[in-house]
Design brief:
By secondary structure, this protein is mainly α. It has 2 domains: 35 residues, no CATH class; 66 residues, no CATH class. It has 5 helices and no strands.
Amino acid sequence: MEFLAHHGKWAGVSSEFVAHLRESGRLRPEDEPPDVGRWSWVVGAFFDLCTERSIGMALGPLPVLKIAAYAAWQRIEEPWFVRVIGAMDIAYLAQQRSKSSG
C-alpha cells in the first residue's frame, strides 16, 4: 500500500504546493504520489475514517461499526468496502508502529 507511505510523507501538504514543486522541477520522481486512479474514493474514505480512531496510549484500529456507519452514510453498497478499509487499516497501523519503533 504505497499510498500510505506517500500520505505519511506529505500529510498536511496542499495539492497546490505539490503541483508547484512538480512544475518547478523540484519534485523527485520517487516522491510522486502513486496513482490510485478509480480507487481514489476508497483512499479518501479511509483517511476520512482515520478521524474515528480512539485516542489513548497507542494508535488504535478503526472501529468496524464506524466503517459500516460511514458506508451507510455515504450510501456505499459494495460488499467488500468494510473488509478493504479494514485491510488498509492493518497496513496503516503496521506502518505507523514501524515508524515509531524505528
